[in-house]
Task: inverse folding
């Protein structure tokens, strides 16, 4: 075959493959927006569901998901960052740490329903937290940990080794070196990784199914021991358990959920772009 | 003398890079160390403030004394590095302001007061004060390569060392910047002891009081710069200095 023709074919195949991968995303958004946009109103966003969830709004679910996103990050961010620092800056390369690192990578591949069952057995039953906001946040946090640790390690590794050498050569301790010469420069990567990981788990249903989500709870939680409604679970409930519900309420809920997670993603991306521009080396 | 080296050998893994080295460094001299690649000169330099400790493969034998005190026994590594500071081959300013770069060491050692004076004194000593005094809070990365290297010298001086190690400090610099760094070194020897590793035989001749010639991990010859460059009887030295190999 002549080289020009084969190049043309190759480019076409590559282009079509790229196109096909984004097509589903665009279709999902198009279908959800088309069917759901009519449900969106101020009342839908700010009122509790009424009439057996067939009308009214989804405010408690929005607030619940917001609390879950915030609470899980508050737990997973410090834990993941500190663990990542230890693994990347302090730990020696031996069998134990290699197993540890392998385990963390594999944790990212554990199905989310398994996290849900783990949360149920550990937090809800064994630690007697019950089905509650705290159990849900802890379960989601554990699910976020692998990617936060991985993002932290990647961000730390991208800080030039010379920064550490310079700092140590001036008589700084290892901790001072990490604290003042490494961590500040790794922060953009760490924060972005955390936000993106959070955006991913926020849309999950399985981990909150047994640990926090309430079927119907028209008031807002008053403590961390309360149940909450959450968008993913609410969507699951109204699309499978409520016969005769107006289709645009289901799609409207899906639209709110997708906007919620996409804006978290967008926030992460904007933050990364901004912080990268601050980066001076 | 400031530094005494007794039967010092060093390995990276199984590879011996320095073979039973014996030498002395006098106070307030500039000792130039020359030699071809893999001669062990940078390893020797980095041993003096124990930066080689960062490499898990590094092993050593023998003794090195700073002011008659064993650097591996008497000193903890932090206080040793305060006394023996290093200037790296490439200018390595931290991506923070000029002021913060110089103040970094003192701050790490808990000094909070008088930072302004320390910074000014150090920048003056490194002959860069006039060029940066109006832009101390700009990023150090806005400086030219030569200015960055002198900033790094100032940063090392700010911790008030006794010995300053230079690891091929001009390898990335143009001739004019090189001249300025050399000028700074000549002034510094009044207060500090300087060890200069360089690939540039002429630079060693220009600034050193004494010159040591390393090859394949061994010290071939050490003598005053004048004797070494005009009267050496060692064939290896003559060949290297005259550029016949290396």
Result:
């Amino acid at each position: 075959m002549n080289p020009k023709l084969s190049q043309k074919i190759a480019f076409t195949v590559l282009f079509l493959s790229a196109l096909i991968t984004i097509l589903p995303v665009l279709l999902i958004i198009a279908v959800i927006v088309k069917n759901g946009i009519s449900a969106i109103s101020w009342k839908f966003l700010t009122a509790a569901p009424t009439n057996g969830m067939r009308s009214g709004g989804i405010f408690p679910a929005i607030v619940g998901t917001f609390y879950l996103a915030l609470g899980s990050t508050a737990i997973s961010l410090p834990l993941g960052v500190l663990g990542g620092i230890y693994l990347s800056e302090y730990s020696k390369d031996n069998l134990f740490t290699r197993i540890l690192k392998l385990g963390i990578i594999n944790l990212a591949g554990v199905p989310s329903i398994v996290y849900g069952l783990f949360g149920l057995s550990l937090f809800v039953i064994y630690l007697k937290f019950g089905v509650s906001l705290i159990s849900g946040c802890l379960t989601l946090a554990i699910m976020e940990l692998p990617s936060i640790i991985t993002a932290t390690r990647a961000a730390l590794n991208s800080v030039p080794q010379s920064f550490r050498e310079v700092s140590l050569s001036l008589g700084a301790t290892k901790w001072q070196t990490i604290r003042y010469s490494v961590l500040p420069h790794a922060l953009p990567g760490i924060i972005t990784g955390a936000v993106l990981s959070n955006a991913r788990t926020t849309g999950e249903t399985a981990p909150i199914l047994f640990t926090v989500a309430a079927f119907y709870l028209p008031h807002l939680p008053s403590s961390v021991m309360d149940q909450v409604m959450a968008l993913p679970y609410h969507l699951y409930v109204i699309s499978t358990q409520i016969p005769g519900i107006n289709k645009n309420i289901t799609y409207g809920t899906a639209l709110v959920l997708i906007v919620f997670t996409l804006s978290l993603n967008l926030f992460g991306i904007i933050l990364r772009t901004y912080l990268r521009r601050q980066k001076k080396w | 003398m400031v530094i005494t080296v007794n039967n010092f050998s060093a390995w990276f893994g199984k590879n011996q890079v320095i073979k039973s080295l014996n030498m002395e460094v006098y106070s307030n001299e500039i000792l130039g160390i020359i030699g071809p690649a893999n001669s062990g000169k940078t390893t020797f330099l980095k041993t003096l403030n124990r930066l080689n400790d960062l490499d898990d493969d590094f092993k050593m034998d023998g003794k090195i004394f700073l002011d008659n005190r064993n650097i591996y026994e008497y000193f903890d590594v932090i206080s040793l590095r305060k006394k023996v500071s290093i200037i790296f081959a490439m200018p390595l300013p931290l991506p923070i302001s000029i002021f913060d770069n110089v103040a970094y060491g003192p701050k790490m050692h808990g000094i909070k007061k008088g930072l302004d004076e320390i910074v000014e004194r150090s920048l003056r000593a490194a002959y860069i004060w006039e060029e940066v005094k109006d832009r101390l809070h700009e990023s150090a990365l806005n400086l030219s390569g030569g200015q960055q290297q002198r900033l790094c010298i100032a940063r090392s001086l700010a911790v008030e060392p006794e010995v300053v190690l230079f690891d091929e400090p001009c390898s990335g610099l143009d001739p004019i910047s090189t001249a300025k760094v050399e000028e700074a070194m000549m002034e510094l020897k009044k207060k500090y002891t300087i060890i200069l590793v360089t690939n540039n035989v002429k630079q060693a001749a220009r600034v050193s009081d004494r010159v040591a010639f390393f090859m394949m991990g061994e010290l071939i010859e050490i003598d005053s710069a004048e004797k070494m460059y005009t009267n050496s009887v060692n064939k290896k030295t003559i060949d290297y200095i005259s550029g016949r190999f290396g």
Remarks:
- Chain A touches chain B through 19 residues (CB under 8 Å).
